[in-house]
Amino acid sequence: MLFSALAVLMYSIGVEPGSAIDTPSCSTLLIIAMSPIDVYERPDSTCAPWSILLPGQILEILVTTADGWLGFDPGVAQAGNSGSFRYRWIKRDASFTIASGDPDMLEVVWGPSAGFTYVMTFEPVPVFLEPDSLSEIVDSLPCCSAAAITCRIPGWYGIDPVKGPHPGTIPGWVSETAVSINGVIEDVPLRSQLLYFSGPGQSM
Question: What's the pLDDT score for residue 191?
């Protein structure tokens, strides 16, 4: 099977049989689509497909999730995305053949779910007890992390890190200038600035 898959790989990239080519390393997972494969923006089948991988197309798979989704670099500009949001995803049981590599050797990463709007970080971001920079800092959201947004007021997002790659982070508030957003921010409840918050979405 590996020989035939490599033959298809060579044909797909225009390499004549018998030509000298670099053999992919055993740590590289290359797959070849055998039939159309739905590609998703998040590793969640309730999302609408982002694109379609056509038969014969080749992907280098970089990561996997704990429940088996396979992530790859889509090769598009993603200056505003970090962490797992930089990948696009296909199902583990999609119709493809493995040209080289072992899926079990992939790095396992957290995968964002459908239906949530997330903050993303590019450096450690302080988490405040209240939506106020003079408030107590209760924790820090690590670099290249994420958390679901539960509520918002102008300039601040209430976050739930349980829905993210670092669930041990204490919930609180982050400044909108310190993070990037993935999802539809208008879907997140907007709270009155006149309320005094004891935590994200919890008024006193």
Answer: 87
Structurally, the chain folds into a number of domains equal to 2
pLDDT at 118: 98
* Structural domain span for residue 141: 118-203
* CATH label of the domain that carries residue 93: 2.30.30.40
Give the end of a domain, one of 109, 130, 147. Answer: 109
Q: Exposed, middle or buried: residue 15 (CB in 10 Å: 0-12, 13-18, 19+)?
A: middle
- Mean pLDDT per block of 10 residues along the chain (204 residues) reads 38 37 58 98 95 97 97 88 96 97 95 97 98 97 98 97 97 98 95 59 44
Considering the entire predicted model, what is its pTM? 0.81
Q: Do 26 and 69 reside in the same domain of the chain?
A: yes
Q: For residue 193, what is the domain's CATH number?
A: 2.30.30
Closest by CA position to 84, among listed 112, 56, 60? 112
